[in-house]
Design brief:
Length: 318
């Protein structure tokens, strides 16, 4: 089990790095050559939308096991609409900055306001469509409210939270989304490794029996190490700039570790409520796609706050 997890974890990292390299290279080539302008996310967004389809399928499967049966088509449509809306709003801001040279859109908060507006409109559209779909198939009392709750929950959990990952990449370039992935997954690795080696005290025995207090502490230490390496060593070398101050990378490591653990437990919560151990079998050694993304979904909004407030930086002036 451990060998399989390490093998497929390594393959996931390699695939992610290749996709990030392609995304940055293509976007940079279009900007410097001035032949055709290409936005960020031209490679990563389609890849993430494939993951979003798998995530939606797995969450719907969990809800079905718990007795909730929202209309799958509407939930898929709502989640994909939110992701595309957030990306297109950011593309518009990037185009203003890089092509039209409208520097007013440079600030992180001002940049975020446009994207959040369109994302919220997409969320509202998903909710309205969910109501309309339930009206269309209504035949007798019972089950409508709980199915609506399942649809809105899935749209908020996957579609809305995933916007922050898109926003991190588009507003603060590839460095921001990689900071989230590296620090969160270092926490997962640390918690799993330390918990297996010396874990004795159960953290949440009823919810996730395998998680221990020792594992959680190991996850925080690994997360802080990953944050230090990324913001103090890697980014200044890549961008020829100054490292993030110690309080920035340290707080980022601790807080992202904690929120990532909350995300992991949130995934366990809905699975346990449906008497399921894994969300699926799409990722050998891990389970389902949700088992890989659950910690990222919860940590993404917090990571975005760190970047927006300037507690962490890519080592250069944005």
């Amino acid at each position: 089990m451990i060998q399989r997890r390490l093998l497929f974890g390594f393959l996931i990292i390699i695939i992610l790095l290749i996709l990030c390299w392609l995304d940055v290279s293509i976007s940079h080539y279009g900007l410097t050559r001035e032949i055709i302008w290409l936005p960020r996310g031209i490679i990563l967004l389609p890849a993430y939308m494939v993951c979003l389809v798998f995530l939606t399928r797995e969450v719907l499967r969990i809800l079905n096991a718990a007795g909730l049966h929202p209309l799958a088509f509407i939930v898929y449509l709502g989640n994909l609409l939110i992701a595309v809306s957030c990306w297109l709003a950011n593309v518009f801001q990037q185009y203003n900055l890089e092509v039209l040279h409208v520097t007013a859109s440079k600030g992180g908060w001002q940049w975020a306001s446009t994207a959040s507006f369109w994302a919220l409109l997409a969320v509202a559209a998903g909710v309205i469509l969910s109501f309309a779909a339930e009206m269309r198939r209504y035949s007798h009392p019972g089950g409508v409210t709980i199915n609506l709750a399942g649809a809105v929950f899935t749209i908020a959990y996957l579609g809305l939270l995933s916007c922050f990952m898109i926003q991190l990449h588009m507003a603060y370039e590839i460095w921001a989304i990689l900071s989230l992935v590296i620090v969160t997954k270092m926490c997962d690795i640390g918690a799993y490794t330390v918990g297996k080696l010396i874990g004795r005290h159960k953290m949440t025995p009823g919810l996730s029996p395998g998680k221990t207090v020792e594992g959680a502490m190991g996850g925080i230490l690994f997360s802080c190490f990953g944050s230090w390496f990324w913001f103090v060593i890697a980014l200044p070398l890549c961008n020829d700039g100054n490292p993030t101050p110690w309080y920035g990378w340290f707080l980022f490591g601790v807080v992202i570790a904690l929120t990532g653990m909350v995300g992991d437990l949130a995934g366990s919560l809905i699975k346990r409520d449906s008497n399921m151990k894994d969300s699926g079998h799409a990722v050998p050694g891990f389970g389902g796609v949700l088992d890989v993304f659950d910690s990222l979904l919860m940590a993404a909004p917090v990571a975005y706050l760190f970047w927006a407030f300037g507690f962490v930086s890519p080592g250069k002036h944005l």
